[in-house]
Amino acid sequence: MPQVKVFDMAGNEVSKMRLSKTVFGIEPNTAVMHEAVVNYLANQRQGTQSTLTRTEVRGGGRKPWRQKGTGHARQGSIRAPQWRHGGIALGPKPRDYRYSLNKKVRKLAILSALSSKVLDKDLVVVDKISFEEIKTKKMVEMLKALGADKKALIVMPAVDEKVIKSAANIPGVTTALYNTICTYDILNHDKLILAKDAALKIQEVYDK
Length: 208
Description:
The chain is an alpha/beta fold.
Protein backbone atom coordinates (compact mmCIF):
# COMPACT_ATOMS: atom_id res chain seq x y z
CA MET A 1 0.00 0.00 0.00
CA PRO A 2 1.72 3.24 -1.12
CA GLN A 3 2.19 5.97 1.43
CA VAL A 4 2.56 9.65 0.54
CA LYS A 5 3.21 12.82 2.47
CA VAL A 6 0.38 15.32 2.94
CA PHE A 7 1.32 18.99 2.69
CA ASP A 8 -0.40 22.22 3.52
CA MET A 9 -0.64 25.06 0.99
CA ALA A 10 2.64 26.51 2.25
CA GLY A 11 4.49 23.32 1.35
CA ASN A 12 4.90 22.08 4.91
CA GLU A 13 4.42 18.39 5.63
CA VAL A 14 1.50 17.95 8.02
CA SER A 15 0.88 14.20 7.95
CA LYS A 16 1.12 11.02 5.90
CA MET A 17 -1.57 9.21 3.98
CA ARG A 18 -1.90 5.60 2.87
CA LEU A 19 -3.33 5.22 -0.60
CA SER A 20 -5.26 2.28 -1.97
CA LYS A 21 -2.97 -0.25 -3.64
CA THR A 22 -5.65 -1.11 -6.21
CA VAL A 23 -5.95 2.54 -7.30
CA PHE A 24 -2.53 4.12 -6.80
CA GLY A 25 -0.29 1.07 -6.56
CA ILE A 26 -0.85 -1.09 -9.64
CA GLU A 27 1.74 -1.87 -12.31
CA PRO A 28 1.15 0.82 -14.98
CA ASN A 29 0.02 -0.59 -18.31
CA THR A 30 1.74 1.58 -20.92
CA ALA A 31 -0.13 0.11 -23.89
CA VAL A 32 -3.54 0.78 -22.34
CA MET A 33 -2.57 4.34 -21.39
CA HIS A 34 -1.45 4.96 -24.97
CA GLU A 35 -4.74 3.57 -26.25
CA ALA A 36 -6.70 5.87 -23.95
CA VAL A 37 -4.71 8.96 -24.99
CA VAL A 38 -5.19 8.20 -28.70
CA ASN A 39 -8.91 7.74 -28.06
CA TYR A 40 -9.15 11.05 -26.18
CA LEU A 41 -7.35 12.98 -28.91
CA ALA A 42 -9.46 11.36 -31.63
CA ASN A 43 -12.63 12.33 -29.81
CA GLN A 44 -11.45 15.96 -29.62
CA ARG A 45 -11.22 16.25 -33.41
CA GLN A 46 -13.98 18.34 -34.97
CA GLY A 47 -13.80 16.51 -38.29
CA THR A 48 -14.96 19.60 -40.20
CA GLN A 49 -12.12 19.68 -42.74
CA SER A 50 -13.35 19.55 -46.32
CA THR A 51 -11.87 19.87 -49.80
CA LEU A 52 -13.65 20.42 -53.11
CA THR A 53 -13.80 17.62 -55.64
CA ARG A 54 -13.82 18.32 -59.38
CA THR A 55 -17.63 18.35 -59.36
CA GLU A 56 -17.71 21.03 -56.65
CA VAL A 57 -15.15 23.49 -58.03
CA ARG A 58 -16.69 26.41 -59.89
CA GLY A 59 -16.20 26.36 -63.68
CA GLY A 60 -14.68 23.78 -65.98
CA GLY A 61 -17.89 22.78 -67.72
CA ARG A 62 -16.47 23.27 -71.21
CA LYS A 63 -13.97 20.84 -72.74
CA PRO A 64 -10.73 22.91 -73.05
CA TRP A 65 -9.86 21.61 -76.54
CA ARG A 66 -10.98 18.96 -78.95
CA GLN A 67 -10.21 15.33 -78.22
CA LYS A 68 -7.77 14.66 -81.08
CA GLY A 69 -5.31 16.42 -83.35
CA THR A 70 -3.93 19.12 -80.99
CA GLY A 71 -0.79 17.36 -79.80
CA HIS A 72 -1.98 17.80 -76.22
CA ALA A 73 -3.15 15.08 -73.90
CA ARG A 74 -6.91 14.72 -73.93
CA GLN A 75 -8.68 16.79 -71.32
CA GLY A 76 -12.31 16.92 -70.34
CA SER A 77 -12.26 19.79 -67.83
CA ILE A 78 -9.89 22.44 -66.50
CA ARG A 79 -11.14 21.57 -63.02
CA ALA A 80 -9.69 18.03 -63.08
CA PRO A 81 -7.21 17.31 -60.22
CA GLN A 82 -4.10 17.68 -62.39
CA TRP A 83 -5.00 21.27 -63.29
CA ARG A 84 -4.12 24.36 -61.28
CA HIS A 85 -7.25 25.45 -59.42
CA GLY A 86 -8.68 22.02 -60.10
CA GLY A 87 -10.52 19.81 -57.63
CA ILE A 88 -8.80 17.67 -55.02
CA ALA A 89 -8.73 13.93 -55.58
CA LEU A 90 -9.39 11.79 -52.51
CA GLY A 91 -9.24 14.79 -50.18
CA PRO A 92 -10.73 14.87 -46.67
CA LYS A 93 -14.45 15.31 -46.16
CA PRO A 94 -16.38 15.97 -42.92
CA ARG A 95 -16.46 12.86 -40.77
CA ASP A 96 -16.83 11.81 -37.15
CA TYR A 97 -13.59 10.56 -35.59
CA ARG A 98 -15.20 9.54 -32.31
CA TYR A 99 -15.05 5.99 -31.03
CA SER A 100 -15.46 4.47 -27.59
CA LEU A 101 -13.25 2.29 -25.44
CA ASN A 102 -14.34 -0.58 -23.27
CA LYS A 103 -15.24 0.57 -19.75
CA LYS A 104 -12.67 -1.74 -18.16
CA VAL A 105 -9.97 -0.42 -20.49
CA ARG A 106 -10.77 3.19 -19.56
CA LYS A 107 -10.62 2.34 -15.87
CA LEU A 108 -7.31 0.46 -16.19
CA ALA A 109 -5.83 3.41 -18.10
CA ILE A 110 -6.76 5.90 -15.36
CA LEU A 111 -5.47 3.61 -12.60
CA SER A 112 -2.24 3.13 -14.55
CA ALA A 113 -1.85 6.90 -14.96
CA LEU A 114 -2.45 7.53 -11.25
CA SER A 115 -0.03 4.79 -10.26
CA SER A 116 2.63 6.10 -12.64
CA LYS A 117 2.45 9.50 -10.93
CA VAL A 118 3.04 7.82 -7.56
CA LEU A 119 5.98 5.83 -8.94
CA ASP A 120 7.53 8.93 -10.49
CA LYS A 121 6.95 10.91 -7.27
CA ASP A 122 4.87 13.42 -9.20
CA LEU A 123 1.79 13.07 -6.98
CA VAL A 124 1.26 15.77 -4.35
CA VAL A 125 -1.50 15.52 -1.74
CA VAL A 126 -2.62 18.75 -0.05
CA ASP A 127 -4.69 18.62 3.13
CA LYS A 128 -6.99 21.40 1.91
CA ILE A 129 -6.97 23.81 -1.04
CA SER A 130 -8.99 26.98 -0.49
CA PHE A 131 -8.63 30.73 -0.90
CA GLU A 132 -10.40 33.61 0.81
CA GLU A 133 -10.52 35.51 -2.49
CA ILE A 134 -9.75 35.02 -6.15
CA LYS A 135 -6.03 35.67 -6.32
CA THR A 136 -3.70 34.31 -9.01
CA LYS A 137 -0.67 35.34 -6.94
CA LYS A 138 -1.76 33.08 -4.07
CA MET A 139 -2.13 30.13 -6.44
CA VAL A 140 1.33 30.76 -7.91
CA GLU A 141 2.80 30.86 -4.39
CA MET A 142 1.11 27.57 -3.48
CA LEU A 143 2.34 25.82 -6.62
CA LYS A 144 5.88 27.08 -6.05
CA ALA A 145 5.82 25.90 -2.43
CA LEU A 146 4.67 22.45 -3.57
CA GLY A 147 7.35 22.25 -6.26
CA ALA A 148 4.70 22.22 -8.99
CA ASP A 149 5.39 25.49 -10.76
CA LYS A 150 5.39 23.90 -14.25
CA LYS A 151 2.42 22.03 -15.73
CA ALA A 152 0.12 20.97 -12.92
CA LEU A 153 -3.31 19.35 -12.68
CA ILE A 154 -5.19 20.36 -9.53
CA VAL A 155 -7.98 17.96 -8.60
CA MET A 156 -10.69 19.18 -6.25
CA PRO A 157 -13.43 17.27 -4.39
CA ALA A 158 -16.08 19.87 -5.30
CA VAL A 159 -16.48 23.02 -7.35
CA ASP A 160 -14.65 25.97 -5.81
CA GLU A 161 -14.90 29.09 -7.98
CA LYS A 162 -12.13 30.89 -6.07
CA VAL A 163 -9.65 28.08 -6.71
CA ILE A 164 -10.72 27.59 -10.33
CA LYS A 165 -10.51 31.29 -11.21
CA SER A 166 -7.25 31.76 -9.31
CA ALA A 167 -5.66 29.12 -11.53
CA ALA A 168 -7.38 30.11 -14.79
CA ASN A 169 -4.71 32.57 -15.98
CA ILE A 170 -1.66 30.45 -15.15
CA PRO A 171 -0.20 28.76 -18.26
CA GLY A 172 -0.01 24.99 -17.93
CA VAL A 173 -2.22 24.80 -14.83
CA THR A 174 -5.57 23.01 -15.06
CA THR A 175 -8.24 22.38 -12.44
CA ALA A 176 -10.61 19.42 -12.47
CA LEU A 177 -13.04 17.55 -10.24
CA TYR A 178 -12.25 14.07 -8.96
CA ASN A 179 -14.98 12.56 -11.18
CA THR A 180 -13.93 14.34 -14.40
CA ILE A 181 -10.25 13.44 -14.61
CA CYS A 182 -9.07 11.44 -17.60
CA THR A 183 -5.88 9.61 -18.54
CA TYR A 184 -4.79 12.32 -20.98
CA ASP A 185 -5.05 15.12 -18.40
CA ILE A 186 -3.11 13.14 -15.80
CA LEU A 187 -0.28 12.26 -18.18
CA ASN A 188 -0.21 15.67 -19.87
CA HIS A 189 0.81 17.44 -16.66
CA ASP A 190 4.12 17.23 -14.82
CA LYS A 191 2.52 17.20 -11.38
CA LEU A 192 -0.78 15.84 -10.12
CA ILE A 193 -2.00 17.81 -7.10
CA LEU A 194 -4.83 16.20 -5.17
CA ALA A 195 -6.79 17.79 -2.39
CA LYS A 196 -6.92 15.14 0.35
CA ASP A 197 -10.70 14.84 0.11
CA ALA A 198 -10.40 14.43 -3.68
CA ALA A 199 -7.90 11.59 -3.20
CA LEU A 200 -10.33 9.85 -0.83
CA LYS A 201 -13.20 10.24 -3.31
CA ILE A 202 -11.07 8.92 -6.19
CA GLN A 203 -10.43 5.83 -4.09
CA GLU A 204 -14.15 5.46 -3.40
CA VAL A 205 -14.96 5.65 -7.11
CA TYR A 206 -12.24 3.36 -8.48
CA ASP A 207 -11.57 0.97 -5.59
CA LYS A 208 -14.31 -1.46 -6.63
